[in-house]
Amino acid sequence: NTALIAVEGLTKTYPGANGARVKAVSEVSFAIAPGEVLGVVGESGCGKSTLGRALLRLIEPDGGAIRFDGKDLMTLSKSGMKAARRDLQIVFQDPFGSLNPRHTVGGIIGEPLVVHGIGTSDSRRARVAELLGLVGLPEDAGKRFPHEFSGGQRQRIAIARALALEPKLIVADEAVSALDVSIQSQIINLIADLRRRLGLSILFISHDLSVIRHVSDRIAVMYLGRIVEIGPAEAIMESPRHPYTQALLSAIPRPGEGRARQRTVLKGELPDPANPPTGCAFHTRCPMAMPVCSADRPALVRREGGVADVACHLYEAA
Ligand code: SF4
Ligand code: MG
Q: Does the keyword Transport apply (predicted)?
């Protein structure tokens, strides 16, 4: 098995009303190869951020296994997990909230080196200068403060900090979602470039399929805490098979396509995660739903005639 990270049956529940447990993430399994980008897409509340945080054990999963770079993360002690986080970093959506306003940018980027006791103050200063260059910021940025920078530049600072320890995997959670569209594409290009130059693996989380498709080798689509379709990015974008993926895709404009394109409008609201529908959780909104759909949950498996794993009764298991 050559995966850098392999997640098996990951589950995270939260306490809900009346003592019920809300399953934010249910039995999620996937793997990411070295240097690969897996995009995770789904509506807000589908569990994708919980998944990202659970991977680093920033929140504790209830069950499942996470094998990362030969280690079983679920069994690591606190100090073992701290060591593992050198190789496993996260970049959040809001670079205002995640950058300490009282610290210089150089101090912020170099902080992980200090925390992990790496290098001397001279070597750390040199490394910070290198990191600033890597993310396209001027060297004197290190002496300035976060509020002096635009949103896009602050996200470059957050990325530089995430790269300080030379991680193998970065979780990017809505890392460009707070930015203007033109700035979004600059940061996406930066991430794509860094991934090529550094051989990074990335779990790229976004509610926006038009963002996900630009960076991902493979795409996982989540609905109510579960992956409903996962496969190569071209297959997901060109011939999505799960009706939910089709609906997400129909909502984004595509270059070269006229207005003839038909938009699938999902009926109804996203169901309450505390009380998910039986069977296929999508059946309350699915335009293709059949009687079997509310009775049996379809397995996420490879389906006949396709290259993706799809959790849908419309297709025979391959
Ligand atoms: Fe729709 Fe049924 Fe497929 Fe679920 S299993 S996506 S309800 S057709
Ligand atoms: Mg989120």
A: yes
Q: Is residue 95 part of a domain?
A: no
Same domain, 238 and 110: no
Instruction: Indicate if ligand 1 lies below 6 Å from the C-beta of 314.
Output: yes
- CA atoms of 180 and 258, how far apart (whole Å): 25
The 10s digit of each residue's pLDDT in 173-228 is: 999 988 998 899 999 999 999 999 999 999 999 999 989 998 999 999 999 999 99
Ligand 1 in contact with 92 (CB < 6 A)?
no
From 111, 145, 165, the end of a domain falls on 165
Residues of the domain holding 20 = 5-87+167-310
Question: Please, what is the Cα angle at 177 between 236 and 260, to 5 degrees?
Answer: 45
Comparison of pLDDT for 128 and 269, the residue scoring more: 128
**Residue at 68 is within a domain:** yes
243 lines ligand 1 (CB under 6 A): yes
Q: What's the predicted TM-score (pTM) here?
A: 0.94
318 falls within a domain: no
Tokens 């130059």 label which residue? 197
- Whether residue 128 is predicted with pLDDT greater than 90 in this model: the reply is yes
